[in-house]
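TICKET: design request
STATUS: open
ATTACHED STRUCTURE:
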């Protein structure tokens, strides 16, 4: 018997239908030589600290760091999960072959592997790898099953992510709660991705709060009902501005140069998960988590492809299927009619197999959508229009620049006129979906009069006082972009694609990270804007260790996880490096004799803390006499990620200290190693 295991009951039903497994049983479907069962997402998880030793259950500084050797998994403590697992285990014990039908991604691979390990499966395992749940895709997937070993690196990357999050999250949360928290308050939640994300928000909020507006003056003049701006830039003092205004008042304005430049604008990129979340937040005010749930629902309803993707490209083998997909979008016949009877365009900007690894961009499947709610209709419409647009011609426009002068002062105005709408027809006049709203200018629609070079005439000069503006607060859209680029502000789409390698978190986890920060009351929302709370800011203030709050450093760890997936980095080395990082953080905090402290809010004091109350401090514990855990020579520096740990006279340090790396660890406490 062949046992197929899917990640959800609904997906299992779709697979069972294709395979002819039509007999329903408790926890599985059977027929045609197949038994199709399912999980409910994660049935297994990494063991809790107390599962390794009872000594790790109390929250005690002396028990840190907790690094299991080796890590183990446990079944989640839920009666429904235990019942389903027992069914799965029974089926697997008798199976001749298992087909892993989990979601085709890192998390899906980890979920199913853990279940098979916990069930003690011994038979051969194949992998179903599909990007949509249509009957055609499922049938083709079963015709092209892969050996599970081909996805070993994917599993290792997922396992390393889970182990890294466990080691850092559990140790750092306990460490900071015990050392700097207030008795009876909510534990201080610290995480590998959530803390750098919070740090970015806190930094932005403080930049806004500490911003002091500065006045400046702009010189302009109106000629033929068109406003020209001085090319000299702004004036920092009113006196300078008034002097310039006096120079040009009463003098004629002369058009000195007119230039016209033809341009074209390609259709917007297709969606990956992050860009879809960004677009839905801007357009519909959907949270990242809401958008993820909606696009997951559309995937399970077979109308869009796999959602947890980080590429905006399609592989070349998708192109022959595009005609059939478009034919399924019957509600968009008006937009499809210009494409009828023509060969569909194929641009390298959208079809590039080298930019696609496991999955392509999110597109419709061609299955007509039925029974969608209003929110699902909105998201599907965005996905469908972006897909249709890539087959439309470029938008053609003309940019006109007119230069003029009054005496020696020069002025300029620029206008942009659309000559052929091209793909813009698909969006009914909307601007490019990926563009930030704050970047839109009047140049987009400004149409200039027909000026003649050399013409001259009267004008109305003006001097306007303006004020410098503070940075804008994060929205979920801009925060997702910041997480994607490890805090770097990037407008160029191609550069953004390159920086994804060092982004923090994965597309599928960023929404959950943001929701966790809200849940912990570290951030709050006002309309679309996100602000840090006093508790969130206090937490960041007590964390002096860059290892915990640097988006750039965290991005390097994310890059290593990607490299593991791509067979370019060792999983064992990643875990060893994480151990060094945790050891360094614990040792630095343990030896801290400052009075850093987070004060609990009244609301937090009323909550019951899950942590075990700390033991009464003794004279010995107050002096922090317990030796830090050993740091070994030769390991990669956990602070900069470039140098190696070297031994000095009084401390271990980083070989890159001349380049500014400040990593240091006391030597006398490591003699026992």
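STATUS: resolved
RESOLUTION: sequence designed for all positions
ATTACHED SEQUENCE:
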């Amino acid at each position: 018997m062949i046992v197929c295991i899917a990640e959800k009951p609904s997906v299992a039903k779709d697979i069972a239908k294709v395979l002819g497994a039509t007999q329903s049983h408790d926890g599985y479907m059977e027929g045609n030589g197949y038994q199709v069962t399912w999980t409910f997402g994660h049935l297994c998880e990494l063991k809790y600290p107390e599962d390794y030793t009872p000594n790790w259950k109390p929250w005690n500084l002396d028990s840190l760091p907790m690094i299991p050797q080796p890590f183990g998994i446990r079944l989640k403590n839920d009666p429904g999960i235990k019942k389903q697992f027992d069914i799965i285990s029974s089926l697997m014990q008798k199976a001749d072959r298992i087909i892993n039908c989990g979601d085709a991604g890192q998390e899906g691979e980890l979920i199913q592997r853990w279940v098979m390990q916990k069930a003690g499966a011994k038979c051969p395992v194949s992998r179903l790898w599909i990007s949509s749940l249509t009957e055609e895709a499922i049938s083709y997937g079963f015709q092209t099953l892969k050996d599970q070993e081909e996805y070993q690196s994917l599993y290792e990357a997922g396992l390393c992510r889970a182990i890294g999050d466990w080691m850092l999250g559990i140790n750092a949360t306990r460490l900071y709660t015990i050392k700097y928290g207030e008795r009876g308050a909510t534990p201080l939640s610290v995480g590998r991705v959530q803390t750098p994300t919070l740090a970015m928000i806190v930094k932005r909020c403080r930049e806004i709060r500490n911003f002091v507006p500065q006045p400046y003056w702009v010189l302009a003049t109106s000629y033929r009902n068109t406003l020209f701006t001085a090319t000299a830039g702004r004036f920092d003092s009113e006196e300078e501005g008034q002097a310039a205004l006096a120079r040009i008042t009463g003098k004629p304005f002369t058009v000195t140069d007119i230039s016209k430049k033809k341009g074209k604008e390609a259709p917007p990129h297709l969606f990956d998960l992050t860009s879809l979340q960004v677009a839905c937040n801007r357009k519909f005010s959907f949270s990242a988590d809401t958008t993820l749930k909606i696009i997951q629902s559309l995937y399970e309803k077979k109308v869009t492809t796999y959602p947890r993707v980080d590429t905006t490209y399609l592989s070349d083998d998708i192109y022959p299927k595009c005609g059939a997909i478009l034919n399924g979008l019957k509600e968009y016949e008006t937009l499809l009619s210009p494409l009828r009877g023509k060969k569909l365009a194929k641009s390298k900007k959208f079809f590039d197999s080298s930019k696609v690894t496991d999955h392509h961009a999110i597109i419709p499947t061609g299955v007509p959508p039925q029974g969608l709610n209003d929110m699902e209709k909105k998201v599907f419409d965005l996905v469908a229009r972006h897909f249709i647009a890539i087959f439309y011609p470029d938008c053609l426009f003309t940019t006109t620049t007119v230069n003029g002068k009054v005496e020696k002062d020069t002025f300029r105005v620029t206008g942009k006129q659309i000559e052929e709408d091209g793909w813009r027809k698909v969006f009914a006049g909307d601007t490019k979906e990926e563009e930030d709203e704050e970047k839109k200018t009047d140049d987009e629609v400004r149409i200039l009069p027909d000026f003649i070079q050399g013409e001259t005439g009267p004008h109305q000069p003006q001097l306007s006082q303006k004020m410098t503006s503070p940075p804008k607060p994060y929205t979920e859209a801009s925060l997702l972009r910041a997480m994607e680029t490890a805090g770097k502000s990037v407008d160029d789409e191609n550069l953004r694609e390159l920086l994804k390698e060092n982004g923090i978190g994965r597309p599928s986890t960023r929404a959950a990270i943001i929701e966790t920060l809200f849940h912990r009351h570290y951030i709050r929302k006002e309309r679309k804007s996100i602000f840090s709370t006093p508790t969130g800011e206090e937490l960041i203030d007590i964390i002096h260790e860059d290892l915990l709050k640097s988006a750039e450093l965290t991005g390097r760890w994310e890059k290593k996880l990607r490299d593991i997936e791509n067979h370019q980095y060792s999983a064992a080395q990643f875990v060893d490096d994480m151990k060094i990082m945790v050891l360094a953080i614990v040792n630095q905090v343990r030896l801290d004799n400052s009075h850093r402290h987070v004060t609990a809010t009244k609301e937090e004091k009323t909550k019951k803390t899950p942590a075990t109350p700390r033991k009464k401090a003794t004279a010995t514990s107050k002096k922090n006499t317990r030796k830090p855990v050993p740091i070994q020579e030769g390991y990669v520096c956990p602070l900069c990620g470039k140098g190696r740990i070297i031994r000095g006279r009084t401390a271990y340090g980083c070989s890159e200290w001349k380049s500014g790396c400040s990593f240091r660890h006391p030597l006398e406490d490591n003699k026992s190693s």
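CLOSING REMARK: Confidence is low (pLDDT under 50) at residues 431-444, 602-630, 668-673. Residues 152-180 form the longest helix (29 residues).
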